[in-house]
Amino acid sequence: MSSGKQWSIGILAAVLVIGVLAYVNRVDIALRLVSFAMEQRIPVGPGRNIAWQTGTDPQGRAPGERPPNIVLILADDLGWNDLTFNGGGVSGGTVPTPHIDSIAQQGVNFTNGYAANGTCAPSRAALMSGRYGTRFGFEFTPTPPGMVELGSLMQGGEGRLRDSIRNPDAESIPYQEMGMPASEITIAELLRDEGYHTVHIGKWHLGLADGMAAQHQGFKESLLMSSGLYLPEDLSLLNIQSC
What we know:
Elements: H1 3-24, H2 26-41, H3 90-93, H4 98-106, H5 120-129, H6 147-153, H7 187-193, E1 199-202, E2 221-224
Parallel strand pairs: 1-2
């Protein structure tokens, strides 16, 4: 066999091995590419201390004479049986949730509630507005270009989700314009009008333009998690403990 053929076979074998490895690790590769793209689009700055307000009533009223503080916590993909205070818990209760349990034990546990939508952003919009998303045209989770294809890539193997149902005649809306209409009245707007100091921390995913951002929907302050999803690897929590 000539040296040229040997080189050709060697190159073909190497390409085949690389292709197999890339296919096996396709999800990890795709996620790393997304992470790299996000870092280029939205640079992550260093951790910094935040001077939070003390919560002291500016009118000097005693706790029993002023409206109660309200903390609304929303977690994506959290099922009622993922928490241990109802007798369940992840992995048969081996992952306890004592801090969330204490909220239920010291407050009120509503056992007959329903999500207004099966996906994150529309259900959040319903919770914020008190209305079904179908009433104001917000029925699907806003996704940037390529997100649907990435999700399909990660569905391979046993138990994969069903294929997406596409409407080729649907109007295409730029990602920046997707969100809950600014005309909707949010719980933050109602509380702000009653004298509350309203603060949003974390994920929003209800729009960023045309009056849909958190600071335009009733929140006086907004510390946004801008779709980065994760803190930098090995970042010491001691540097961000004030957050």
